[in-house]
Amino acid sequence: MISWKTRLPPALRNPLRRFLVRVMETSNLRAGNDFSWLLRESYWRADLQALDEACARGSDEAAWRPLIERLPLEIFLLLLFTRQTEWPNIARRFPSLPAAGLQETYTSKVNQGHLATLAWFVPAVVQRYQAGGRRIEEAMALDIGCGWGRFLRAFWRYIPGSQLYGMDISPDILKSCDECGVPGRRLLPGGLATPEMRRRFSLIYAYSVFTHLAEATHLELLARLREVVTDDGLVALTIRPRAFWDLLQVQWPQRAATWAELDKTHQSSGYGFTGHAGPTTYGEASIDRSYIERSWKDWQVEGFGFVPGEAYQIVVWLRPR
Ligand SMILES: C[S@@+](CC[C@H](N)C(=O)[O-])C[C@H]1O[C@@H](n2cnc3c(N)ncnc32)[C@H](O)[C@@H]1O
């Protein structure tokens, strides 16, 4: 068969080839598969081979754990957030990804688009958790508003599935976690009220959840978290800063007056909120430091940070008082 290569003069072949590779990479980038080639590289090939063979032998997570822990976090994330075929037994045993549309609806990104967020937030949590001398692999962890489970997947690099819990208000999204084989157990909010949950969790995080809650819902959820966290537990929440309303001015100028009003409310009361569809409990919320100091009486703020690449996710590190 005559290909485009054979018909072209040699001087044009390489530039054209480079161009075509670039086009392919760009379309892969859009599809979220741009870094898949890394899974074939020599640096971690032996470790991936060993994990793939262990996955071929069976589905016992305990047998894989030492092999999972040998992988750099980025490579572990790449395995989980790529529809990869390079390591078929890993692909068969590890959690699969939900449809791109569902990912986008919940988290505005798809597949490898999540890597930067996860590769910053997860190590930041692990480092802070271990700073007190505790071991992350012994943590009992609760993901609040876990959605389709991107953080449950990522924390599984460090924490066995039997110690991971994901809570969400939506039974449908928890079902999608089950269907994809996400590690950990699932809970609806009511599940946290049972006696065995009291003081159970040494690590609780809620990413992009308090960024969306109406004030009463937020206070109720915080009170529930206080009941289930251990006395020396670590809690990490993300919230939106006041400048979020400036961002919406640019992104959604048709509602400029609403954003200006919410900015004013943020300044006067420390809490700005607008429901997504009328007076709901879920929408967009901004929270000021003064509000936290005034209202989160059961919590000691250990510090603040932000997620590089997601500057409108301010991280609040908390300990129970
Ligand atoms: C923007 S998504 C973030 C999902 C996940 N934390 C992540 O970053 O991948 C917000 C999630 O919070 C859940 N949620 C909303 N209100 C909640 C509540 N009151 N209690 C628990 N989960 C809630 C939603 O169902 C949704 O899954």
Task: Draw up the topology in text.
Blueprint: H1 4-7, H2 10-31, H3 45-57, H4 61-70, H5 73-80, H6 88-93, H7 100-107, H8 115-131, E1 141-144, H9 150-155, E2 164-167, H10 171-180, E3 185-187, E4 201-206, H11 215-228, E5 229-239, H12 244-251, H13 256-269, E6 271-275, E7 283-287, H14 289-295, E8 299-307, E9 310-320
Parallel strand pairs: 1-2, 1-4, 2-3, 4-5
Antiparallel strand pairs: 5-9, 6-7, 8-9
Helix pairs in contact: 3-4, 12-13
S-adenosylmethionine is lined by residues 106-107, 144-147, 150-151, 167-170, 173, 189, 207-209, 212, 217, 221, 282.
In the CATH hierarchy, the third-tier topology of the largest domain is known as: Rossmann fold
CATH architecture descriptor of the largest domain: 3-Layer(aba) Sandwich
CATH class value of the largest domain: Alpha Beta
Largest sheet: 7 strands, mixed
| Rounded Rg | 22 Å
Helix segment tally: 14
Strand order of the largest sheet: 3-2-1-4-5-9-8
Percent in strands: 15-25%
Low-confidence sequence ranges: 1-13, 15-32
Q: Residue-averaged pLDDT, rounded?
A: 91
> What pattern of helices and strands is seen along the backbone?
HHHHHHHHEHEHEEHEHHEEHEE
Helix content: 40-55%
Give the structure's gist in a few sentences.
The chain has helices at residues 4-7, 10-31, 45-57, 61-70, 73-80, 88-93, 100-107, 115-131, 150-155, 171-180, 215-228, 244-251, 256-269, 289-295; strands spanning 141-144, 164-167, 185-187, 201-206, 229-239, 271-275, 283-287, 299-307, 310-320.
